TrEMBL record:
InterPro entries registered for this protein in UniProt: PGG_dom
TM spans (from-to): 172-190, 210-239, 251-274
Originating species: Punica granatum (Pomegranate)
Stated name of the protein: PGG domain-containing protein
Residue stretches making up the PGG domain: 163-275
GO cellular component, one term: membrane
Entry keyword Membrane: yes
Alphabetically ordered keywords of this record: Membrane, Transmembrane, Transmembrane helix
Keyword Magnesium: no
Coiled coil location: none
Length: 275
């Protein structure tokens, strides 16, 4: 339907097309709801619509539609277009607006509070990079900078993210410690036992015994790594900037090493049963 409509409108002059898109406002609704296909089709027929995209870009930023945002940035958008979105009534620019908490439907699309906080920080940093230092420090009518608004708006989310990180780290660290204890004990009670008065395992020359030793050692190293990662999360300061890279990075490393420890423990268990 969009293709047919654009084909019918292709014979219009530029002034009529701009007037029509400004009147109906569905371009703004498409940017607000992430309708990239609709916007792309319209731009293919009427590329000059890209020149007047301040409102659509603002809608994409406020509603956290990264595909639409990247689409506009890939065109003729420069910093001056983004800086032009200035509200004379509140004296706020686009950075003040993106500093506020995202709408609930977009916020709930991310699984946990820690990653929600990371996404909000990523959006704030992405818009901040496109503005010059003077525009970043502009104060609104209440004499608040964009950074101050971000801290105030995300105070509850920051607290929820900190609580979630601590609870998750505590639970995972218990599992990692249990696995480390099991695989550590298994290294000294090898399957089949040892030769009397020599301490040499009976299955030393078996290939499956090598598999048991390697998987058990790897399970011990990965489980202790997981414990260290979750311990570093528990002792972190939980500042806003920590949720951008350090804390999510430690969480991913902790989960990955814990998964590897569980897999190695199962391999060692299977090798023991085989022997």
């Amino acid at each position: 339907m969009v293709e047919i409509a654009c084909q019918q409108m292709s014979c219009w002059n530029e002034k009529d097309v701009l007037s029509y898109f400004a009147k109906v406002g569905f371009f703004y609704i498409a940017a607000q709801n992430g309708g990239v296909e609709l916007i792309t089709t319209c731009l293919q027929y009427f590329p000059y619509l890209m020149r007047n995209n301040t409102i659509r870009l603002q809608a994409a930023v406020l509603h956290r539609q990264e595909k639409v945002f990247n689409l506009f940035l890939g065109g003729a958008v420069t910093t001056k277009y983004l800086a032009a979105t200035f509200d004379a009534q509140t004296q706020e620019n686009i950075l003040h607006k993106v500093a506020r908490l995202a709408p609930y439907p977009r916020l709930s699309s991310v699984s946990c509070p820690a990653l929600q906080m990371q996404r909000e920080l990523q959006w704030f940093k992405a818009v901040e990079k496109l503005l010059n230092p003077t525009q970043r420090t502009i104060k609104n009518k209440k004499w608040e900078t964009a950074r101050e608004i971000f801290t105030t708006e995300h105070r509850d989310l920051l607290r929820d993210a900190e609580r979630w990180m601590k609870d998750t780290s505590n639970s995972c660290m218990v599992v990692s410690t249990l696995i480390a204890t099991v695989v550590f004990a298994a290294a000294f009670t090898v399957p089949g036992g040892n030769v009397e008065d020599q301490g040499i395992p009976l299955f030393l020359k078996e290939k499956v015994f090598i598999l048991f030793v390697v998987s058990d050692a790897l399970g011990l190293f990965s489980s202790t790594t997981s414990v260290l990662m979750f311990l570093s999360i528990l002792t972190a300061r939980y500042a806003e900037e920590d949720f951008l890279r350090p804390l999510p990075k430690r969480l991913i490393l902790g989960f990955a090493s814990l998964f590897l420890a569980i897999a190695c423990m199962m391999v060692a268990f299977g090798a023991t049963l085989y022997m």
